[in-house]
Specification:
Structural class: mainly beta
Number of strands: 11
Largest sheet: 7 strands, mixed
Distance between the termini: 40 Å
Number of helices: 0
Oligomer: single chain
């Protein structure tokens, strides 16, 4: 059974930081392209960041470039999203995604940026 379990969300003031984690089980983690997506109320789910197998390539949404960093630890089957300089518009449910031969999603973790 495949599971992607996100953690690390919460309430933070503008300008603050959070680090999201996604622990995967039931898949050969190193084979998967890992990504983070987010969905704000009334909006479609959008790509935040992805990292290729072997960590050789990353991609980011323009809105988060320079502020967010995706990383992965294949030994721990975990992908991370370091979020700095958070803005109110970053408020959303953040979802972990694993994509290769199949496409898997986590249950999401809420990030709220508010003063």
């Amino acid at each position: 059974q495949v599971q992607l379990v996100e953690s690390g969300g919460g309430l933070v003031h503008p300008g603050g930081s959070l680090r999201l984690s996604c622990a995967a089980s039931g898949i050969t983690f190193s084979r998967y392209i890992m990504g983070w997506y987010r969905q704000a109320p009334g909006n479609q789910r959008e790509l935040v960041a992805t990292m290729s197998r072997g960590s050789s390539r990353t991609s980011y949404a323009d809105s988060v470039k320079g502020r967010f960093t995706i990383s992965r630890d294949d030994a721990k089957n975990t992908v991370y999203l370091q979020m700095n300089a958070l803005k109110p518009e970053d408020t959303a449910v953040y979802y972990c995604n694993a994509r290769w031969s199949s496409n898997f999603w986590g249950q999401g973790t809420q990030v709220t940026v508010s003063s």
